[in-house]
Amino acid sequence: MARVPIVPGDTVGISVDPKVADAGWTPVIGQQRLTSTPLDTTYYRFTYPDLQEVPADGVLLQIVAGRGESTKGIWVFRLDRA
């Protein structure tokens, strides 16, 4: 699993392939979706300010491709405090 070091307050950017964007995708941290509906763009960014509370082994960031019950793929990364 890929690990991504993050500095508290920094912006995290996610870029996906246009084919993934066409299928729709949702960024998820832990069990919380970051958007209420699937995205259809190739780029999304967010600030994750509470990394001080992240466990020493990090927190999972999932990119879930697809809409509704039609999951086409899941990519998983671990966000760690830098």
Polypeptide structure, described:
- The chain is mostly beta strands and 82 residues long.
- It has a single domain (2-81), classed as Sandwich (Immunoglobulin-like).
- The protein has one helix at 18-23, and strands spanning 2-6, 11-15, 25-29, 32-33, 43-47, 59-67, 70-81.
Structural category is mainly beta
Number of strands: 7
Distance between the termini: 17 Å
Biggest sheet descriptor: 5 strands, mixed
Helix content: under 10%
Tell me the strand percentage band: over 45%
The number of helical segments is 1
Overall radius of gyration: 13 Å
What is the CATH-assigned architecture? Answer: Sandwich
Mean pLDDT: 88
Poorly predicted runs are none
Name the shape in a single word: globular
The strand order across the widest sheet is 1-7-6-3-4
CATH superfamily descriptor: Immunoglobulins
Order of helices and strands: EEHEEEEE
Assembly category: single chain
Helix-strand blueprint:
Layout: E1 2-6, E2 11-15, H1 18-23, E3 25-29, E4 32-33, E5 43-47, E6 59-67, E7 70-81
Parallel strand pairs: 1-7
Antiparallel strand pairs: 2-5, 3-4, 3-6, 6-7
